[in-house]
Design brief:
Helices cover about 40% and strands about 25% of the residues. It is an alpha+beta fold. The protein folds into two domains: about 40 residues, no CATH class; about 90 residues, Diaminopimelate Epimerase, Chain A, domain 1 (Roll). The longest helix is centred in the first third of the chain and has 19 residues.
């Protein structure tokens, strides 16, 4: 297969060229986009989401190995979650994102406490961490979303 792996920087550059009208997407790029959209739809269909609360804020999470950014946004929007969590078992990593409009919890502090994590202080809406005993204890409070 001759599929191009689109990193965020490659995608960003292609979108800039497309938006400026300098060129259209090539047939190969359009095919790659179509394949990625199908993979994303498949991911959404086959992913189970779980919910809980942290300080009365709704937390929704799932297990996923790809489409982390898209899934985090999907969780915040579809489930009206204050905090979205993705667990990547392959990477043994936790990704957290919060809705800054509805949640005043410090995601940096939460990530440090829950999963020995860290965040970009300038962007207190995204944090990363590891699967820890505290995180595993928290997962016992999760129930399937309805």
């Amino acid at each position: 297969m001759n599929k191009t792996i689109w990193t965020e920087s490659i995608l960003s550059e292609k979108v800039k060229l497309f938006k400026s009208g300098k060129r259209d997407f090539s047939p190969q790029e359009l095919n790659d986009i179509k394949i990625d959209l199908l993979r994303y739809k498949d991911c959404l269909t086959n992913t189970q989401f779980f919910e809980s609360k942290i300080k009365n804020f709704k937390v929704v999470g799932c297990f996923a190995e790809s489409f982390h950014g898209e899934l985090l946004t999907h969780i915040l929007v579809k489930y009206n979650a204050a905090i979205a969590i993705i667990v990547s078992m392959d990477e043994k990593r936790i990704v957290l994102k919060k809705n800054n409009e509805t949640c005043n919890i410090s995601l940096c502090t939460l990530a440090k406490l829950l999963c020995n994590g860290d965040c970009y202080e300038a962007y207190n809406d995204l944090a990363f961490g590891k699967i820890t005993e505290k995180f595993l204890k928290f997962t016992k409070t999760l129930t399937p979303c309805t």
